Amino acid sequence: MLQPEELGQIEKKLHQAGLKLTPQRRATVKTLVRLHESHLSAEELFAKVKEAEPEIGLATVYRTLEVLAELKIVNRVSFEDGITRYDLRTEDSGHFHHHLLCQICGAVEEIHEDLLVDVEMKVKEKYGFEVADHRLTFLGVCAKCRAKRQRHLQ
Fold it and tell me: What residues bind Fe cation, as annotated (predicted)?
C-alpha cells in the first residue's frame, strides 16, 4: 500500500533532478499518488488532474509523465487494450509489481510479491543472463466476474 510520505519522496526526487515543482506538476503527482492503483492513461490522468487544477493542459500532463518515467517514478504499462497506462513505482520490492487482468470487466489487481525468483535463477544459470527487472500480467477472470457467471448458471 502506498504511504502518504511517498508524495514527499517523489517531490524530493524532482528537486534532486533540478526540476521545479510547479502547481501543475504537483497536482499531477498528487493525483497519481491518490489514484495509484487505477493504472490511468495520460488522458484519464489529465481529466482527474483538471478537476483540481483547471488551468492545466494535456501537454503538461504528458511532459510530467515523461519526466516521471525518466526518473523511474512511474512505469509505462500496456495491457490488452494497447493503451499506455502509468503505474506508480513503489518501494515495496526490488522489482516492478505484477498484475491480474480480468478479461471480462477489465479490472486490474496488483500483486506486490515477487513470484519469479526461481525463474530468474534458472534464466541466469541456463542462459547466463542476469535479470534486472520483469513484468508479468496474468490474464483471466476475476472473482467478481466468476461469481456473476456462476449466479447466471444457476
Answer: 134
